[in-house]
Amino acid sequence: MEPIIQESELPEPEATRRDANVTESSRANRGWWDRNADEYQIEHGTFLGDDRFVWGPEGLDEVEAELLGPPEELKDKDVLEIGAGAAQCSRWLVSQGARPVALDLSHRQLQHALRIGGNVPLVQADAGVLPFKDGSFDLACSAYGALPFVADPGLVLKEVRRVLRPGGRFVFSATHPIRWAFPDEPGPEGLSVGASYFDRTPYVEQDEQGNAVYVEHHRTIGDRVRDVVAAGLRLVDIVEPEWPAWNTQEWGGWSPLRGNLIPGTAIYVCVRD
C-alpha cells in the first residue's frame, strides 16, 4: 500500500461552522477518508479488531448488545453494512453465518478491507444512492458510518428502507447529539457547555480556498426520530451506551472522564414494517 499521508504535508484546514450541501459534504468526506484511512486504521484498528462488531468508542460489542437480533438468527441473513470502513463488522457477521455486503464511500477504506481479507463483497458507493434492488437485504447496519456525515440523512434512511425486506431491521450509531454542546476535548475542558445544542450549523473544515475538506452534520435526538419516521421506518429503541470500567482508551473527544458523565454515542434501532 502507499505510505500514509502525513498531516504536515498538507496545510492545516480552517475549522468553522457553516452550511454544506449534499454534494459538498459527500465530496469533502470522500476525500478526507481517502487521505486519513491509513492513519485511522493504525490508530484504531487494534481497538476495532479485524472481525469484531463494535458500535462506538465505548466498546459496546454486538455480541453482548444483540441489537440486530440473537446471533443464532443471523445465519443466512443478507446484511448491508453502510460506512463499513475496513469491514470489521461484516467479517463478524460472516462468522455468524450471515451474508454481508460492506459499502463505503472511501476507496482507501475499502483497500484496508482487502488488506485484512475475508470473504466479504465490497462496494464503493454513496449511502444516499444505494446500488441495490428493492428488498435486497434482511438487515442493515451502520456503526458511525455515513449518517453523521451526510447533509440529508433522510435520503439515506429512505434508501435503506427501500433495500430492506418487510420486517427488516436497520441499526445505526452516531455521535450522541448532546456532544455538540460541548468542546470536542477528552479532558476537563470538554465538560463545560460551549455551544447551543439546538444549533444545527454543520462543522466544516475548509482549505485556503474555502473548499470543504471535512464535514460533519448535527441532528438533535428529536431530529433523528423525525428523520426515521419520515423515511417510513419504525423506531423501536434508542440505546445510549454507558462507558465501561475496562475501557481506559481516549478516542478523540471520547474518554473515560467524559463517558462517565455524559453519553457519547446514540444507537437507533429501526424496523421496516
TrEMBL record:
Protein keywords: Methyltransferase, Transferase
Q: Is Transferase found in the keyword set? A: yes
InterPro entries (UniProt xref): Methyltransf_11, Methyltransf_Superfamily, SAM-dependent_MTases_sf
Q: What is this enzyme's class at the first EC digit?
A: transferase
SUPFAM superfamilies named in the record: S-adenosyl-L-methionine-dependent methyltransferases (SSF53335)
EC number(s) stated in the UniProt entry for this protein: 2.1.1.-
Q: Which residues form the Methyltransferase type domain?
A: 80-172
Disordered: region residues: 1-29
Q: Does the keyword Transferase apply?
A: yes
A single Pfam family it belongs to is Methyltransf_11
> Some GO term, biological process aspect, for this entry: which one?
methylation
Q: List the Gene Ontology MF annotations in alphabetical order.
A: methyltransferase activity
Name it: Class I SAM-dependent methyltransferase
Q: What species is given as this protein's source?
A: Streptomyces atriruber
